[in-house]
Structures
1.
Amino acid sequence: MSLTLHAFPPSPRAFKVLVVAHHLGVDYKLVLCDLTKGDQKSPTYTALNPNQKMPSLEEGDFKLWESNAICQYLANKKPEAGLMPADERGRADVTRWQFWESTTWDPACAILVFERVVKRFFGGGAPDPVEVEKGLQRFHRAAGVLDGHLKGRKHVCGSQLTLADFALGADLTMAEAAQFPLENYGEIRRWGAMLAELPAWKKTRAMQAPPQRS
Ligand SMILES: N[C@@H](CCC(=O)N[C@@H](CS)C(=O)NCC(=O)O)C(=O)O
């Protein structure tokens, strides 16, 4: 049965599911959900995902949205790759970091991405200094947690690469464009550099045309 990913590759949430598919070697068809054209609001797409947000997955009559759920679904197709550990505590650990990504890390990064990248990309005006300040505060709070956790660990969940690395690492694809203040977070920079060397990472990065600076 063929698997379709509806995604807008420049977005970190799309990057997350695409990089996992590439790392696992899962065959998929990409249907561009072009956010610049409002594809996410079309009646067809809304029937697939009533949130009118990408990414979404379709496989036969099965439809799934929420990027971390999609990543779990993909990982379960190739359990031998170990992106989702087999043991209960290992699974809980990965899931914990996926939840933390959705609730804490991504929302912090997203403020800076919106103010410094998305607004310019969509002609939405200059960054709002109040929002940028809020984004910086949240970023530092979250980055302090992640950086401290990564000390002494090669990957987020220890010695093995898991979905947690892909979930949390996806936002780093915006680090330069959104000027994430990473100077004092050497562990995040070390871990991000390791992720950037993965073949699947390079392949997915190549699909992420950088937003044009105006
Ligand atoms: N929690 C969702 C977030 C999805 C999301 O916010 N997608 C954004 C792209 S970065 C979107 O499609 N935005 C379109 C819109 O809000 O109109 C996930 O991880 O899948």
2.
Amino acid sequence: MQRTLKILRFNPETDRQPHWEEYAVEAEPTDRVLDLLHQVKWYQDGTLTFRRSCAHGVCGSDAMLINGRNRLACKIRVDQLGGKRITVAPLPGLPVMKDLVVDMEDFFAKFRSVQPYLQNEGMPPERERRQSPADRDRYEDTSRCILCAACTSSCPSFWAKPEYVGPAAIVNAHRFVFDTRDDHADERLEILADKDGVWRCRTIFNCTDACPRGIHITQAILEVTQEIRTADLS
Ligand code: FES
């Protein structure tokens, strides 16, 4: 069947503003939007620029705005999108470098700011640091983040205030704050107690809706907020 792929294009070397371009493509119902983008790039216009790597929803590199929602191009199928025209634009709220490629530097700087790694001050055990299944379950959900930025770039609080650390960073802080093997939860909570930390969340749930991994992001933010309220951070 035929589909029209309407893509928001921008070349910083020649364009002052982004503009829409349309491409007719042949699509199977089970094709992913990434397959259609490849069709355009390989057979119609090699200048089309977008990120992708694994093509299986694992690496998080091809999040984009597809028919008005942040999604992974490699996961969303043509038959999941109504209509004959599919619109594709870069993730909102992030600086566009070229076509569908956005600048992720600030996004990853915020991710790094919450110390997203295990810190344990004790002597290393002879074998692994053991943990009960119940303790492991405490952060199972937030451990599934693939850092695609679909959540942060769908958040109106982030659009209004780009200094906001954003849902993705809070999710990755949650991953370690609730890990019983980690000794630095309070440091992360102090970072997130900042004016541009968790308090900027307005529980709009856009982040939860956008997450391709189905992570309960708003709930995770509320759990971190509650932890800040009860922690002794003085
Ligand atoms: S290409 Fe890796 S998540 Fe889509």
3.
Amino acid sequence: MARIVAMPGPTASTAPAGRTRTLAQVYRQFGEVEAAGSSPLYERVAVALSESDEALRAIETAPARKRHPTVILAALYDLALAGRAPALAAAYAAADGDAAADAAIDTLLRMTDLVVATAVRRQPRPNETGRCAVLYPAIAEAAHRVGANAVGLIDVGCSAGLNLSVDRVGITYSDGQSLGDQSSPVQLSASIVGDRPVPGRAMPQVAARVGVDLDPVDVTDADDARWLRACLWPDQPERAARLDAEMALAATAPPVLLHGDAVEVLPDAFASVPLDALPVVITTWSLSHFPLESRLRFLYRLEGTGAGRTVAWVSVEGVGVAPAIPTFGDRRASGHSIIGLAVFEHSTLRAEAVGRCWSRGRLLAWLAGS
Ligand SMILES: C[S@@+](CC[C@H](N)C(=O)[O-])C[C@H]1O[C@@H](n2cnc3c(N)ncnc32)[C@H](O)[C@@H]1O
């Protein structure tokens, strides 16, 4: 079996913020470095929060791991989208940074308990759209390699399960090639790196859509859907429109959502896939959230759960994160991800890296022979 490498460190969104002084620095840095250039509204609001002792004290009533700006700003935006913070909603809609800063502090101070409760209950979920441009050719390739006429998709670490609409979107690549449903309300684009096109095979029939997550998001639930929107920044209308379109499409064929640890829940997920369909497990940037030992147990579970069935696993994970998937010799933390394709058949595992991708799948290089 291929080597397994150590987990990367905690993401910014989970970093503990520490004492008030440090918290002020975290908010200032978020505004001046992370939001600057992308979100003038969040730049202004985060800096204003960093300069308000009252606001920082309110944020400090949240557990340390829930004080980061990504969670607190999303919790505030969630209140605005729910109609419970009209001044903040109006300021965001008008792209008025000064008014947004005042309204954010006012909302936080008036509704501290609600903001903190939302931050505690929810995970930040920024930018979950657009993975299908990478997944589509890899899933179609998996089905082709084992001669499957139907697949059952099992998205592990699915969050809102947007990947599970992969056969129902249209994709146009920068080399002019297209895949999927060109009349779909969701049209994605991706840039091809290098000379090789992605394989042009169509996806076979999708016989089951199953999402597995410790904390799945149900796009048919108004509160869940609003939280996904609230995790985007309020001055990024293109991202919001793309998310809305992907959520609306997913809601027309909602997946079965299985709540729990992937290793425990996978047998139920396989049981949801008809016997004449190939179970294709998908992971996109999920496994880095699993402890190293859990990643190995996940792999063994894939090998063992099929009970004689052929099973495929399509992974899109950071270099060295997906156990058993080769890495082209790339260094870890290189800034790109490896597209992996593994097939478990007749007690044999065939695992291959089929490409690289960048920017959560907006650029990809297909490298496998087909
Ligand atoms: C960074 S998100 C990735 C979400 C999605 N796959 C994507 O591409 O955006 C990681 C997801 O894995 C889920 N997760 C973490 N550990 C898990 C576990 N042991 N079993 C199932 N899901 C898990 C988290 O709840 C979270 O939704």
